[in-house]
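Could someone model zinc ion with this protein?
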Amino acid sequence: MASQEIEALSSTLARLPGLGPRSARRAVLWLVKNREQALPALLDALGAVSETLVECATCGNVDTSNPCGICADHRRDAKSLCVVEDVADVWALDRARLFSGRYHVLGGRLSALDGIGPEDLNITDLLTRVEGGEVDEVVLAMNATLEGQTTAHYIAERLEPFGLRITQLAHGLPVGGELDYLDEGTLAQALRARRPVE
Ligand SMILES: [Zn+2]
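Reply:
Sure, complex below.
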């Protein structure tokens, strides 16, 4: 029977994606066994992240600086903008450097069911960025779900007056597929074969 403190650590870790109660207990046990090295390092890392995490005012990514590392990177192609639903999608696409442009995070998807309309998404900022005139291609990288596709169509309509090249990820993404769960090969293929929005 573990103490209240150890139980609390276990149940906190068990809420992390990919960990269940069993893995969380194993992680805690490992931390307890390796407490002299592992605990201070973990505390430092958590503390540093929790003090510095900030949302990028330009793209909506979450990073330890504002503008985020991607927006601040001048080697990136400012002409190309990839619109995604969530921060997780930026990370998924950027893990393997699949896309050399910049990103824009909507912060969700249109959903009549959940009462999420255009005003709940980061669309005004997207239009402002595009209005600046620097962007000439927008890649709509929504999830291959019904809501993701509805969102892509809505955004394409809003962007139409700007006369940009508007593309979306190729079909071949599994239906219902969330970008974050796709392997890099599938993502790369969907990005390479991107096509104009009809
Ligand atoms: Zn950014």
